[in-house]
Amino acid sequence: MQFNAEIGDCVADEAVDDTRIVSCEDAAARRRVVYREIRPSPVTEEVLYETCSGSPTADYVLWKTFEGSRVLIMCLETLKP
After folding, report:
1. Radius of gyration of the CA atoms of the chain, in A
2. Exposed, middle or buried by CB within 10 Å (0-12, 13-18, 19+), for 17?
3. Cα within 13 Å of Cα(19), Cβ side
4. What is the DSSP string of 13-28?
5. Where exactly are the structural domains of the chain?
């Protein structure tokens, strides 16, 4: 996954390792980043829910653990066809 995606960027694919940034107009675009945050590790389901709870349109969460015990959490909304 391209973890440099910013709020408003759209991503394609479903699997964390395959996700890539695409134009929101691209037919492959599946979700849009509505919030992102870096938190200390470990991350539980409760933390994921809490992180994305302020984004009412978020219906999908991706996260990646980096060296130094940091976790990037991205809250995504599904794009309507």
Report:
1. 12
2. exposed
3. 22
4. -SSGGG-EEE-TTSTT
5. 9-78
